[in-house]
Design a protein that fits this description.
Elements lengths: L4 H31 L4 H22 L8 H27 L2 H8 L2 H11 L7 H19 L7 H24 L5 H23 L8 H36 L2 H14 L5 H20 L1
Length: 290
C-alpha cells in the first residue's frame, strides 16, 4: 500500500522546511550573540569549528560518499574563501541592521545568480522572469527606503557582499562540480572557510566571547543549528531536487522576520512589510520561471 499523503508530504518537504526554519532561528540567535558582547569574527569562527566537527562525525557515521577528484577537491577548498565571505558578511549585516532587513537584502542572490547565469550562458530567463526580477528589486528598494534613517548603509553593503559571494559559489558549483558529491563539497568548503576565519582571527588577534550564559547558549545554538540546516538541505535536495528545495528556502527570510519580533523586538514598518512581501512573491515567481 502507498504511504498516507501526510507521510509522503512530511518525507518530501520536511527536510527543506527544517532547513529553512533552522536557518531562520540561527539568524535571530546570532543577533543575541552579538548583543552579548561577542563580535562577528568570533561568532563566524566558532560556528565554523562546530560545523567542521559535526560534519566530520556525519561523514563518518553515514554512507561514505564517492571521493572527489583532485580538481574538484581544490575547487571546493577554493569555494571556502567565498563561503567565509558569506558567513562574515551575513553576520556583519545582522549586527548593523535589523534581522529582517539583513536577511531580505541577502536574499537578492537568486536574482544576481540568474542574471549572471544568463550573461555567462549557463541558463536562460524569459521576459516573465525578467519582470519578476524587476518586481523583486522594487520590493527590496521599497523595504530599504521606507525608513532610510534607521538603516546603516554598511549593513546593507555587507548583506549585498554576502549575496555576491553566495552567487559566485552557486555558479562555480553549477559549472564545475555537478558530478561531485555535495556532502564532500560542503565538507571541504566549510573546512577551508574555517581555516580562513581562523587565520584572520590570529592576524587580528580579535576574539571577543559572549559575556553571559545567554550569549554562549545562543552561539552554540547558531553553530549547531546552521550545521543541522546544511545537512537537512542535503537531504531535501536528494529527495525533491534543487529546484523545489530552493522554493522552500524562501521560508527563511519570512520566518526570520516573524521570529525577530517576539525574540528581539525588531518590528518592521507596514511599508517595509509590503516591500518584503512583494520581494518574496516576486522571488518565488522568478524561481518558477527559471
Amino acid at each position: 500500500m502507498d504511504a498516507p499523503v501526510s507521510h509522503r508530504w512530511l518525507h518530501d518537504l520536511g527536510p527543506g522546511i527544517l532547513a529553512a526554519s533552522t536557518f531562520a532561528a540561527s539568524n535571530v540567535l546570532s543577533k543575541i550573540v552579538l548583543a552579548s558582547g561577542s563580535d562577528v569574527l568570533t561568532l563566524s569562527l566558532f560556528r565554523g569549528l562546530v560545523g567542521v566537527a559535526l560534519l566530520f562525525v556525519w561523514l563518518r557515521i553515514g554512507t561514505r560518499p564517492a571521493p572527489h577528484s583532485p580538481r574538484a577537491r581544490w575547487i571546493s577548498l577554493g569555494l571556502g574563501v567565498l563561503f567565509a565571505g558569506v558567513v562574515f558578511g551575513l553576520f556583519a549585516a545582522i549586527a548593523a541592521v535589523t534581522v529582517p532587513v539583513a536577511i531580505l537584502s541577502y536574499f537578492i542572490y537568486p536574482l544576481i545568480t540568474g542574471f549572471l547565469g544568463v550573461l555567462l550562458g549557463i541558463e536562460r530567463i524569459g521576459w516573465r522572469g525578467a519582470l519578476a526580477a524587476l518586481a523583486a528589486f522594487c520590493g527590496l528598494a521599497l523595504m530599504i527606503r521606507a525608513h532610510p534613517q534607521d538603516l546603516a548603509l554598511a549593513g546593507i553593503a555587507f548583506a549585498f557582499g554576502a549575496a555576491i559571494c553566495r552567487t559566485a559559489i552557486l555558479l562555480i558549483t553549477r559549472s564545475t562540480l555537478q558530478d561531485s558529491d555535495p556532502q564532500l563539497t560542503t565538507w571541504y568548503t566549510i573546512l577551508s572557510s574555517t581555516l580562513v576565519l581562523g587565520l584572520a582571527a590570529l592576524l587580528t588577534w580579535n576574539c571577543h566571547a559572549p559575556q553571559d550564559a545567554g550569549g554562549w547558549a545562543a552561539m552554540i545554538g547558531v553553530s549547531v543549528g546552521t550545521t543541522i540546516a546544511v545537512l537537512a538541505l542535503f537531504v531535501s535536495i536528494k529527495r525533491i531536487g534543487p529546484f523545489r528545495s530552493a522554493l522552500i528556502m524562501y521560508l527563511e527570510p519570512l520566518l526570520s522576520t516573524v521570529l525577530s519580533a517576539p525574540v528581539l523586538g525588531e518590528v518592521i514598518t507596514p511599508i517595509q512589510a509590503v516591500g518584503g512581501a512583494v520581494m518574496l512573491a516576486a522571488l518565488v515567481s522568478f524561481q518558477l520561471r527559471r
